[in-house]
Amino acid sequence: MAFNKCFLSLIVALLAFCAGCNEKAEKNNAAEQGATTETSSKKAAEVDTKPAYGDMLIVGSIGDASVLLPVLASDSASGDINGLIYNGLVKYDKDIRLVGELAEKWDVSEDKLKIRFFLRKGVKWHDGQPFTAKDVEYTYKVYVDPKTPTAYSTDFLKVKEFRVLDDHTVEVVYDHPYAPALGSWGQGILPSHLLEGVDITESPLKRHPIGTGPYKFKDWVTGEKITVDSFHDYFDGRPYINRVMTRVIPDLATMFLELKALSIDEMGLTPLQYVRQTDTQWFKDNFNRYKYLGFGYSYLGYNLQDWKFKDKRVRQALTMAINRESIVEGVLLGLGTVTDTPYKPDTYWYNPNVKKFPYDPEKAKQTLAEAGWKDTDGDGILDKDGKPFEFTIITNHGNELRKNAAIIIQRDLKKVGITVKIRVIEWAAFLKNFINKRKFEACLLGWGIGIDPSQIDIWNSKKTGESELNFINYQNPEVDRLLDLGASTYNREERKKYYDQFQEIIAEDQPYTFLFVQYALPIINSRFHGIQPAPIGISYNFPKWYVPKALQKYTIQQ
Questions:
Q1: Cys-Cys with 192: which of 138, 188, 297, 391 at CB 3.0–4.6 Å?
Q2: What integer is the mean pLDDT of 329-358?
Q3: What is the DSSP letter of 298?
Q4: What is the rounded CA–CA span in Å between residue 434 and residue 420?
């Protein structure tokens, strides 16, 4: 194993060198790091630290992107890259408030049925063409086109009429008030002049995107790296950092070695790395660490088309058989919290009064017996209708937290007479061949939690098609009704009432065993300045990050 890590590091270092033919790297010999750092720190204290253009940020990612068109992408690896290349009409600011992006401003009618967007003028696509209302109209049309395999059509299907009033003004009309309407226009806007009349699933922009965002696409070597360069004509000002390279390193331990070798600048730490491996003077001199409760949760999802999981008593028993507190303590080292609903615990929308299923293996056995699962042949394994209770949990390669959580779940379920196998699969194949095609029994995954509480795309009974997000096939008409009601009013208290009821039903049904919300633990090389932690996290102002001239490490030829 150790040899493999060293070998992989060597290969990655070689690739970094090849990728950086136009980049001049400073020393990266581990033995020299202390002296280099001391010099750099001294420089930082002595030199001017004002913002300067230049340098490159190298980010470690355990998974490769799948597609670089926001309408087709639903995985975080793609989303991270798309977020650099594309803009929406609106975005969330540091205090989680909606502000304009491609829209300079907007008006919402008194009856909440119309939104008129006034678009920025002078915005250019990365190929130099002007951004206009036609691009917004095209984006709307492609989202509502039934031929488009997108997970995000719900918001746009609520639009009754789309009107182009002039080159820089559009108006959208709704049948009924739709609370997520304004935020839904944060989806990336697509270039009509390149995509109109093209089958979007066959478009070359899937791998060579053209956006209006702060960074423009440079290259993508599948399974290795994606590189974007700063867009000097960006409407909000040229980003300070010239280049962002996302390197695919599908193993967090290897990625950490790369971090220590100063071959990458940013990664998300595991709890073990945060608590025990980076609390040293060397790391304090070279990196800054951040910690905040992440906008996401991890869960064990059950394929509800599988006969074993159709009875909710079985799902409730599985949750009671899993010691989630021990996962938080043992896997997250306490850097997280058990959750029971699909909302972040420290938000307004979280309902703390839902039914709980705390760790209770004896009650789990009793509930399973009531559902017909008993050890009739004395082999220690529960069975029903002559079939043993056994299933496989799949999860993605490179995420040790999920793998270790799966091992604890396997151990816990064995105690109640259930056999669990674990299968770890490379990220792209995991999504394409198993999740999207519904070829799994149970999956251990995570969701990023949006700012708006609407979760129709994940839980609505109709969102079960291939590549849609309700891939466990959860169907509950009352949940559909509550989610529709929650989306149909702007009254915050009324929305809260509907989402509270939704959470109560989900908690009772247990289509997932909700596992935990963990702390986000990003670590970033200390030569990067301008990072300002805020309620929304740290990446919201990325184009304003910079490296003072004297501390810059790479020279980029653009």
A1: 138
A2: 95
A3: E
A4: 18
Arithmetic mean of pLDDT, 161-182? 96
The rounded distance, in Å, linking the Cα atoms of 146 and 151 is 11
- The CA distances from residue 408 to 46, 217, 383, 413, in Å, are 51, 41, 22, 9
Distance CA 41, CA 526 (A): 9
**Encoding tokens for residue 195?**
């995509």
Token couple for 64: 């490769």
Write down the number of H helices and E strands in the chain.
Answer: 18, 22
Question: In the 8-state DSSP scheme, what is residue 493?
Answer: H
Q: Read off the pLDDT of residues 475-486 as tens digits, 9 standing for 90 and up.
A: 999 999 999 999
Per the CB < 8 A criterion, the answer to whether 464 and 470 are in contact is yes
* 261's tokens: 């070798």
Bridge partners of residue 87, in order along the sequence: none
> What residues does 288 pair with on adjacent strands?
524
The tally of CA atoms less than 13 A away on the side-chain side of residue 156 is: 23
Residue identified by tokens 């670590």 is 523
Q: For residues 501 and 495, give the distance between their C-alpha atoms in angstroms, rounded to a whole number.
A: 10
> What is the C-alpha to C-alpha distance for residues 64 and 411, in angstroms, rounded to an integer?
31
Measured CA to CA in angstroms, residue 184 lies from 78, 359, 450, 462, 487 at distances of 19, 38, 11, 19, 12
Going by C-alpha positions, the residue among 102, 99, 135 that lies closest to residue 118 is 102
Q: What average pLDDT does range 188-212 have in this prediction?
A: 97
- 8 Å CB contact between 240 and 52: yes
* Predicted model pTM: 0.81
